[in-house]
Amino acid sequence: MKIKRFIAADMRMAMRAVREEQGPDAVILSTRNLDDGIEVIAATDYDEALVKEAAGRLFPAPAPASRKPARPSDDSPFTLDDTEAQGNEFIAVQRELSDLRKILEGQIASLAWNELGRRKPQHVQALRELSQHGIEPDIAMALVDELPPDMSAEQARYLPLGLISNRLLLSGRRLTDIGGVLALVGNTGVGKTTTIAKLAAHFVLQHGADGVALIGTDNYRIGAGAQLGHYGKLLGVRVHHVHDAGQLQALLQDMSGYAAVLIDTAGMSSTDPRLRDQMAILEPSRHLLRTCLVLAANTQASAQEEAIHAYQPLHPASCILTKLDESPSIGSTLSVLLRHRLPLDYITQGQRVPEDIIVPQAHHLIHHTIRRGKVAAPSELDDLKLADRYRLHSHPAG
User: Fold this and answer.
1) What mean pLDDT, rounded, does the chain reach?
2) What is the pLDDT of residue 34?
3) List of domains in the chain
4) Locate the SRP54-type proteins GTP-binding domain: which residues (predicted)?
């Protein structure tokens, strides 16, 4: 198989170069406009010849029968090097086929994208806008699928954001009005302890220090207990530490009359084997508490997805989104919330206790998404990149 890249000033000159070098049987795999001309990728002998070559290498035809007796095996050795050489040739052929498949898939995706742009230009514009705001492809396609077929260019910019606003699940209530036992769970570094302090401060303001208590289950991180104890001392509330499920159950029963009990858990990655032990402390008391997953807005969507799956055994009732002030964009985070239909209780955007924690409003989150700017400039999302981004997702119906 012979694949070659040609660059010329225009298509006519590119095709002439292809014919002169690869002949009239060359197949054009892709074309792309460049700043100084056009790029053409062409191939010859990419199908039948390649397969025959691979078959010939791996399954050679049997040699004609010989009248001479076979020589002893030690006189005609067949070494492992021969087998390894054939294996390497097969791997090389597989790699070539894989590269060709990727090129062809990209070409098909580009054609489909261009066809969608011809039939529904405003829908393509909406996908472009959502991509620039960091909305994940599957969520963007689902949103665009709900848009009217005859919308204007202005509507293509703002209607998808309105759909996001309507789809977000926001509790719209203050936990200080509910009280009870609340356990914050989440990965390391998402800000659970600081968030506990902010919530505790609001509970103290509303119910008084005597009605609030803090419990720590982090027995791994050096200084974790000291940090929680520091906040407890500042707020004038009791701080307890437990090491197993039995201790937690007994403590919660003793604190049944408290207005609020906040549990600060150890932060671990989804792959940490100790996570199972940490969840085992909470599991027997699930009927006594409400679990809230803490997600950091400045982390990648993949890490947020892993956290959601890792803590699913605890059945989090809602989430708190932290560190909005440290995130250049929250489009991917909003995509995660929409995908899992996870209710949002609070957002935090700063280190101040208790000021920097608020009950979110949908329009506030959308405004934050727009105000923070676009994660990708229009030049960074050309048609080829957008075609590749959406190639694995079905196009809007119609």
Assistant:
1) 79
2) 83
3) 2-59+85-110 (no CATH), 120-167+378-389 (no CATH), 175-360 (3.40.50.300)
4) 179-371
Kindly report, residue by residue over 62-114, the tens digit of the pLDDT: 455 444 454 444 444 545 455 555 556 666 666 766 776 666 666 565 665 56
Q: What is the pTM of this model?
A: 0.68
